[in-house]
Amino acid sequence: MDYSFFVLPYSNLPAGTRISTALYQLPGTVTLKDPAIKAMTDLAFTQAFCISPLSPFNQANEKMIHCGVRMLLVSDNQEQIIGLITAEDILGERPLRYLCEHGGSREDILVQDIMTPMEQLDALNMRDVKSACIGDIVKTLEHHGRQHLLVYEKNTLKKNSLRGLFSATQIERQLGYPIATIPRAHNFAEIEFTLSG
Question: Which of 12, 39, 116, 132 has the highest CB neighbour number within 10 Å of its CB?
């Protein structure tokens, strides 16, 4: 078979060219009966914001403000997720708790010191999300007292990959009213700190 190929026209990159950002946007309004996928930030179409565990924790706050998000994934140098850090972690009691236990000053605190480690992260399987509605996600967030839920799936190499995330704040924005996600202690250290406070 004889194929004809053509040289495409090209030119210098125009001055002031910017990096494209994902055009993916969640729908403006949803109901509890809508498919869950309508409230999920799908990382197949939008960028995940990450930070190193060795970054000072105040840099995480600055990055969240700059990126307009309230959560960052914490990844190692092989781009594997080792935890996450939220605005609540930074602005809440975790830095104070860390200083009470280890001493030092706020400038000494690293992301890894106050992040939620991988083994404590709640995650949903994308297979289940595909058949769920937003009400199911809200019920799950409320039941576990979480602000965020991660979504994973097996990729073509049969390895788990992070596919997306749900944010209570984002869902509230889309629903147009608040949902009741009361934070809960998830380990003995958190329970002990709550009781001692």
Answer: 39
